[in-house]
Amino acid sequence: MDIQLIRIDDRLIHGQVVVGWVKALNIERLVVVNDGIARNSMQKTLMEMAVPSGLKVVFYTVAEAAEKCRPSEPRERSLLLFANPVDVLEFGRKGGALSTVNVGGMHYCEGKQQVSKTVCVDGNDVEAFRELKKHGVELEVRAVPGDVHEPLEKYLPQLKT
After folding, report:
1. What is the domain range of residue 58?
2. Do the beta carbons of residue 142 and residue 104 sit within 8 Å?
3. What CATH number did the domain enclosing 123 receive?
4. Is 107 a catalytic residue?
């Protein structure tokens, strides 16, 4: 697997991912990393319906992804999709390779505060981001490929190391 992008987006598979990122990065495989979805055949079927023909999609738990998302043959250009930073942190703790994480869409819900146009966080999110930064992971905010690359620290100054 040839990982082109690791993205946090609580909607997982949707237009910005399929039209924007997949085309811009010439992605061949989407990897949805989410324990609940990986164990729910109905949710997997619904997500598969949003994927254009010719684009492969797989669903892994966080533990499975850490084990299976390593450089291997064939070297399919892949995009890993996570719903939240806590799962990304767990992926890294279980041995998944992390260098840069794209923070795309984390929408508002009760208990979260909006810190940028597309990112809302709670205490668990901030703590996970803080841990990722401690381990040298670059966190960038960008909804679509054409957006300006901005460090998450711009919106969460407490992440500066």
Report:
1. 2-159
2. yes
3. 3.40.35.10
4. no
